[in-house]
């Protein structure tokens, strides 16, 4: 799946130079990532390797930490997190700590796997 950036996407502009995001990637420790949030606009952060797992009755969730002062703020949840070097979607922003210096993201691969489990085969163009 390719996403065009530089124009308007859901009200967000990621980069003004019309670069194209193509495909999905994986989060790696020390990777520089970027996102466009409703509240903060375009920001960069660093994957710090911090992993959060939550066990509920029959489910386990896995999230990753992103550090960077004001990488995200209230209102940025749901923003696509992009590998700044390879321009691949790697995660979705879901939360942050009270100091706003650590954001929590869900890896996009886990989101896609969940969609496939619920709706059948998912094919990305």
Describe the structure.
The longest helix is centred in the C-terminal third of the chain and has 12 residues, at 108-119. The strands form two sheets. The protein has a six-stranded antiparallel barrel with strand order 3-4-5-8-7-6. A two-stranded antiparallel sheet has the order 1-2. It has a single domain, classed as Thrombin, subunit H. With 125 residues, the chain is mostly beta strands. The protein has one helix and eight strands, in the order E-E-E-E-E-E-E-E-H. Strand 7 (89-96) and strand 8 form a beta hairpin.
Shape: globular
Distance between the first and last residues' Cα = 4 Å
The percent range for strand residues is 35-45%
* Helix share, percent: under 10%
Name some characteristics of this structure.
six-stranded antiparallel β-barrel, two-stranded antiparallel ribbon
Compact summary:
With about 120 residues, the chain is mainly beta.
């Amino acid at each position: 799946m390719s996403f065009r950036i530089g124009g308007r996407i859901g009200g967000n502009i990621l980069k003004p130079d019309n670069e194209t995001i193509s495909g999905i990637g994986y989060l790696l420790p020390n990777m520089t990532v970027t996102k466009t949030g409703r509240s903060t606009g375009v920001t960069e952060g660093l994957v710090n390797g911090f992993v959060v797992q939550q066990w509920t009755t029959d489910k386990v969730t896995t999230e990753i930490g992103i550090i960077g002062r004001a990488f995200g703020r209230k209102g940025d949840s749901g923003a696509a997190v992009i590998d700044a070097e390879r321009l691949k979607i790697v995660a979705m922003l879901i939360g942050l700590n009270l100091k706003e210096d650590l954001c929590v993201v869900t890896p996009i691969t886990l989101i896609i796997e969940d969609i496939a489990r619920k709706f059948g085969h998912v094919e990305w163009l």
